[in-house]
Amino acid sequence: MFRPRSIALLLFLPIFPMLLSAQTSRISGSVVRVDGAPLGGAHIQVIGTQFGAVADRDGRFHLRVASRGEITLRATHLGFLPALTKVHAEADGEAEVRITLEESPVDLGAVTVSATRSQELLRNIPQPLTVVDATEMERFAPVSVPDALDATPGITLVRDGVWGTDVSIRGLSRANVVTLVDGTRIETATNHAAGLSMIDVSDIDRIEVIRGAASTLYGTGATGGVVNVVTRDGQFGDGFRMRGSLASSYSSVNDGSMGSLGIDAEDDTWFLHVRGTMRAARDAQTPDGILRDSRFHDRGISAGAGVRLPAGGELRARYQLFDAQDVGIPGGASFPAQASARYPDERREMVQGEWRMNGVSDALERLSLRVTHQRIDRNVELIPSPAAVLRPSAEHTMNAALLQGNWSFGAHHLVAGADAWQREYDGRRLREVRANGMVIADLPLPRARFRSLGLFAQDEWALPGDRLRLTLGARADQIHVENDEAYDLLYIESNGIRNDAPANRTLRWTAQQSDEVSWSAHAGVLFRLLPQLDATLNVSRSYRAPSLEERFQYIELGGATYLGDVGLAAEKGSVADLGLRLHADRVTVRVNAFVNAMHDLVVDERRSDTLYVKTNVGTALLQGGELVVEYNPFSSLVLYGSASYVRGRDTETDADLPQMPPLSGRIGLRVPVSGFFSADLALDAAADQDAVAPGEDRTPGYAIMHVRLQSRTFHFAGLDAALSAGVENVFDRAWRRHLSTLRGIVAAEPGRNMFFRLQLLF
Q1: What does residue 615 show for φ and ψ, rounded to 5 degrees?
Q2: Which of 242, 167, 249 is nearest to 210 (CA)?
Q3: Contact at 8 Å (CB) between 92 and 57?
Q4: Most CB contacts within 10 A, which of 116, 200, 355, 441?
Q5: Lowest-confidence range among 9-23, 138-152, 203-217, 466-480?
Q6: Helix (H, G, I), strand (E, B) or coil at 9
Q7: How far is CA 212 from CA 171, 475, 655, 665, 691, in A?
Q8: pLDDT attached to residue 603
Q9: Does the pLDDT of residue 464 top 70, yes or no?
Q10: What is the Rg, in whole angstroms, of the alpha carbon atoms belonging to the chain?
């Protein structure tokens, strides 16, 4: 548990700036397109500071800044050219501005992101970072967060079905990728993908992905990368206003339907955001037949509220509840092919509170404290045969706190702070033997806790002329792991009589604890070779402490047993990434090449045909790269293409690493249709994957076509409306991802899918 003295210190520090009175300038304005239509979702930032706001759907924004005199506002939006506007700010004064953004057919990296724990323009960040915003997700109608990232080079989907999907970043996945929702880790079992599926995709504002090591800012686990999901939030206004939105969609491949309703209210000193979503889908159709156990039913509700404090600070709160019922699991290599598997219910609940203070002093631009409680309940029902039923279940509780400051010292922008989080696992498994009515309750893991306390700092330094930007960061973590004493059997129930102390049970885990100190570091360089051409270099040292499952698991699945090892060493990675970026008016090119040397990788070592034990392997080398090209030859027509490749080798045995994605890519074009719709035609392709680990199956290559349409916002029956539709896998090709774990007679991905989405704003 967190020490009371540490908690008291974290809560006491923010009191000092709250006692200060601050004179602020109020700046309001609107962001519009060239034709005068409002542009919602634009990011407005005061250049050189962390002061910023997001325009509402009417394009309106409101800022309170401590600066006085002439300041410069930068407005950005994905798909538009950035715009700079000068404003004169007076203490306790007000100013009104109007900012016009011009559309850009190609991506110029002109969007503000926060994945580096500060507000910065994507083009100014040396790390390879990708952003997918709400507009892009509406075009693709994703089922889950990974689906929204499917077109991103360097990211590969890990399929455990239609609903349960995860991502691999540059050949590393699940345990090696930190997944966050609003800055809080989603920590749950790593045996089967589901963590990123427990987020309401209709309530997402954007997804930011760091490709490559990011342990300096996010701590243990970020050896492969970070997926940071930012959900929608309310905004302060200049008077009372209430708005609503209604969305509905349909997918033919699984008869899937979705309905979502959102309400936003705001005033000068408060805001409120509420959204609810319900979805349902049947088993998906494939060219080879029905994909059994691919159905799902889920619902989510999210709420956010904020108030301004008299001293100039803000209090914000979030609540998220996501509940899934009767979700089939067609994937999972550990399940027998003939088994029926599902989540009878799965639930994620999060409560978060945050305090912010802007303009604390001339140097300290922002101080914030965020506290989060999250609980994930997972229940599985596995029927390997008519004679037995397995029911594993677990509660994963996360408590986290982050104290962070953003400083500005001339050309230096420093982010530093302390974070603490603790995950607690409490699980059990029931085995029902139907022949004799016996129920056996055992433990796949003992009750255990994983705690991390970390200190981090990262300095971004822009040299005069802004031709050279340097990033230096370091982090240290103290990691504590402990488990309770536990027997292999909890109880045995026979003929209605329960025995809590079976004679044949044994003490499987003794109570123990361990402590370790880990560190990481990062250095990044961005050099502007030409005004439109940048070169980047990133070098990182990352680490990952073994998870609770890797340390303690004892899982018997019919013909195989999987054991953990409490003595596992932490994984360590040394990563180098070299990039080149061209951002011209009509062409964009981004290319990255990387090398990742991993030490003490945790893998399942096969000791016999029925026994697998977690162990560290010596060294491994992953290398590859990504390429993105966009070309605007004339008008608004855009030709685009992307490719990614990674190869992983065990350098001691000279064998290929398992679960490496093949060479893959996408080519396509975007073109306006009659000034109302824009069309997107894309061809996704992957090569044969024959560089496989011993015992791993090869996967043939594939090529599938997609056609998607998206409308501009238009007026209908007194409402603002937007449409999107499309056909995925147009020619109904049978294909399979190499990282898919689909099992059984039908193991193909879903076939032709026609989808439709309508959004109404009122």
Answers
A1: -155, 165
A2: 167
A3: no
A4: 116
A5: 9-23
A6: helix
A7: 10, 16, 23, 19, 22
A8: 78
A9: yes
A10: 26
**pTM of the model as a whole:** 0.90
CB count in 10 Å sphere of residue 385: 12
Neighbours of 321 (CB within 10 A): 16
376-211-40-273 Cα dihedral, nearest 10 degrees: 10
Task: Report which DSSP code applies to 80.
Answer: B
* Per-residue pLDDT tens over the stretch 506-529: 999 999 999 999 999 999 999 999
Distance CA 599, CA 544 (A): 10
Q: What is the pLDDT of residues 370-396, one digit of tens each?
A: 999 999 999 999 888 888 899 999 999
Q: What are the backbone angles phi and psi of residue 667, rounded to the nearest 5°?
A: -130, 150
Mean pLDDT value across residues 631-659: 92
Q: Distance (Å, rounded) from C-alpha 198 to C-alpha 176? A: 19
**Average pLDDT, rounded, for the chain:** 89
Neighbours of 263 (CB within 10 A): 15
CA nearest neighbour of 91 among 109, 111, 74, 66: 66
> Tokens standing for 533?
């051409």
pLDDT computed for residue 22 by the predictor: 47
Q: Do residues 672 and 710 lie in contact, with contact meaning Cβ atoms separated by under 8 Å?
A: no
The answer to whether 621 and 597 are in contact (CB under 8 A) is: yes
Q: CB-side exposure of 495: number of CA atoms within 13 Å?
A: 0
Cα atoms found within 13 Å of the Cα of residue 552, Cβ hemisphere only: 30
Residue appearing with tokens 């966009």:
630
Kindly tell me if the per-residue pLDDT of 11 is higher than 50. Answer: no
Say whether 293 sits in a helix, a strand or coil.
Answer: coil
Please tell me the distance from the alpha carbon of residue 738 to that of residue 419, in angstroms, as a whole number: 37
Strands 177-181 and 225-231: parallel
Nearest to 59 by CA among 89, 110, 99: 99
In 268-363, DSSP assigns E strands to 270-281, 284-286, 289-291, 296-308, 313-328, 340-358
Query: What is d(CA 305, CA 319) in angstroms, rounded to the nearest whole number?
Result: 9
Q: What are 645's two structure tokens?
A: 């490749």
Give the integer Cα–Cα distance in Å for 180 and 272.
23
Transcribe 568-630 into DSSP letters: PPPEEEEEEEEEEEEE-SSEEEEEEEEEEEEEEEEEEEE-SSSEEEEEEEEEEEEEEEEEEEE
102-129 pLDDT, tens digit per residue, is 888 888 777 888 878 888 888 889 999 9
- Cβ within 8 Å of residue 105, ≥6 positions away: 586, 630, 632, 636, 637, 638, 670
Looking at CATH, the fold of the domain delimited by 227-508+520-761 is given as Maltoporin; Chain A (2.40.170)
**Polymer length of the chain:** 762
Count CB atoms within 10 A of the CB of residue 35.
Answer: 7
Nearest to 165 by CA among 178, 153, 150: 150
